[in-house]
């Protein structure tokens, strides 16, 4: 992601644009071209080839995924004095706005190593409590993990959210008392990708959707309530 910033001071405007210096970008700059697979690559036999190629590059230490492989190109959010650049396949990147208006990438934020899963590009900050509510989804159980981050920037313990299978869960919502999860039938289907030459995520028009409603500060999912709704997909709330 390239971030654009404008600083207005003493009647003058200063404009800057800078790429978020992700680990992925720095490695691809070193190689002089793209080396990581992109989500758009994940279709048919070519998708399988790209998955295997990236796994081989990791095994041979050509690519280093220790510090993530996301693009930080989906959204920005400000919380606890930090500007975060986000993509849902990775952890947040912290970007600092300097005194002269320039932008500097400080690196990945893992909340003192408490964040061990992906982080949605659309977390929610409560404007009254200054807390941030977030989640990550995965291709392996637990398919969804919910987190609360205090106004002081402390990430609380993970709350696994049980859903039947891996789905693309791009966004969620909060109210004053609840967090709302969207279990909708855009499904992770690697076998169909290879067998039928399809994209790795496939919408199933025969399945119903569900909203899961959980009190915001619950320490587990025991009290979550699921409500069925007609077949649909909602990318953003």
TrEMBL record:
Binds 1 Fe(2+) ion per subunit. Keywords: Dioxygenase, Iron, Metal-binding, Oxidoreductase, Transit peptide. GO terms for molecular function: carotenoid dioxygenase activity; metal ion binding. It catalyses: all-trans-zeaxanthin + 2 O2 = 4,9-dimethyldodeca-2,4,6,8,10-pentaenedial + 2 (3R)-hydroxy-beta-ionone. The keyword Iron applies. One of its GO terms (biological process) is carotene catabolic process. Signal peptide: none annotated. The keyword Mitochondrion does not apply. It comes from the Eukaryota. Fe cation binds at residues 122, 170, 236. This is carotenoid 9,10-dioxygenase. The lineage of its organism: Eukaryota, Viridiplantae, Streptophyta, Embryophyta, Tracheophyta.
């Amino acid at each position: 992601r390239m971030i654009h910033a404008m600083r207005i001071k003493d009647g003058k405007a200063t404009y800057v644009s800078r790429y978020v210096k992700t680990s992925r970008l720095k490695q691809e700059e070193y190689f002089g071209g793209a080396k990581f697979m992109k989500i758009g690559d994940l279709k048919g036999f070519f998708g399988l080839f790209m998955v295997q190629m990236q796994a081989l590059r990791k095994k041979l230490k050509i690519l280093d995924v220790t510090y993530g492989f996301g693009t930080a190109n989906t959204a920005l959010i400000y919380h606890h004095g930090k500007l975060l650049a986000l993509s849902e396949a990775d952890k947040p990147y912290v970007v600092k706005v300097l005194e002269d208006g320039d932008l500097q990438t400080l690196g990945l934020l893992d909340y003192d190593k408490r964040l061990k899963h992906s982080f949605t590009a659309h977390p929610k900050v409560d404007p009254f409590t200054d807390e941030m509510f977030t989640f990550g989804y995965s291709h392996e159980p637990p398919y969804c993990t919910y987190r609360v981050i205090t106004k002081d920037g402390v990430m609380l313990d993970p709350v696994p959210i049980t859903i039947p299978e891996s789905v693309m869960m791009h966004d969620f919502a909060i109210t004053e008392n609840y967090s709302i999860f969207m279990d909708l039938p855009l499904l992770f289907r690697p076998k169909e990708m290879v067998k039928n030459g399809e994209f790795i995520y496939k919408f199933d028009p025969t399945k119903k959707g569900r909203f899961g409603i959980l009190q915001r500060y619950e320490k587990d999912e025991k009290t979550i309530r699921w409500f069925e709704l007609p077949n649909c997909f909602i990318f953003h709330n």
